[in-house]
Amino acid sequence: MKVGCVKEIKNNEYRVGMTPDNVKSYTNAGHVVYIEKGAGEGSGFTDAEYEAAGAVMTDTAKEVWDACEMMIKVKEPLKEEYKYFHKDLILYTYLHLAADRPLTDALLEAGVKGVAYETLIERNRTIPLLAPMSQIAGRLSVQEGAKYLEKPFGGKGMLLSGVPGTPKAKVVILGAGNVGTNACKIAVGMGADVTIFDINLERLAYLDDIFEARIQTMYSTDAAIENAVKDADLVIGCVLIPGKAAPKVMKKAYLKEMKPGSVIVDVAVDQGGCCETTKVTYHDNPTFVVDGVVHYCVGNMPGAVPRTSTIALTNATLKYGLQIADKGLENACKENDVIYSGINTYGGKLTCKNVADSFEVGYTEIKELF
Description:
Number of strands: 15
């Protein structure tokens, strides 16, 4: 198969879809890999390293899009890239379609086979291609939240851990999945006073067990969240329903009850955000203020640490990518039915039910198409 990887063009996105080691794995398996020059520079990978691994280097992104049968990226294509779509192209990347109707329509119109990292679900119900970025985003959320609590960045001027004789910052984490657990780990490690919410009592019991008496677990209800955020210094939104728009558990009305200079970090922003006041921001201008509360809503948080993020992501995506390249998407699905769950668009049909539900449009079961 002809496999391609281009430089990401999203604002301040430095990750890349393939490392030189990945290229070697694909070329050793008999595939041809096209890499746009400069694609890996943001993550510290040189063109010479890609070339040494067997890649065909191209001067422009267009050359890669035109040549490849399978495009491996990190972020969803932007509007400027829609013109490169072609029928039967396999697009293997994060798509987050529930928050992006124009991209959904463009993929359907072009007949692209869209395989989304964030909806591929293993037999044990884990989301292996989302997990590494969830781990990084969860850990970064506390790091960024701590920074924006500092007075020069608009916060109330509070140290997350406090010092002896002063109160610790109160951190409220909404969602106890992979992101929330990693946020919890860092917040506890930094010495904050941590409360974590979820609707899964088994998950809360698990976190209560592993963190022992160092955190407060709470069942998630509107009233409980509203009461907790009144006293919170940092709120981290980590709510996820795979492929679906995030539920708005953090209401705008709650902000008026929060302390001025408090911070919200909405990690769910890629899926529309779990806070009613969320809007996408970028690393070069990451925050805005609503009702005195600082909002950090960067849509590609792991892009701030691209070396770590790229290696972690491609460690996870390589296995499934090679299966698709070796056998073709259809046969790969038949041999490993897990891959079916990653297909969001196919032959002009929307094949992810949660995305279809988010847009209230027709859904086609992927197994009916091949």
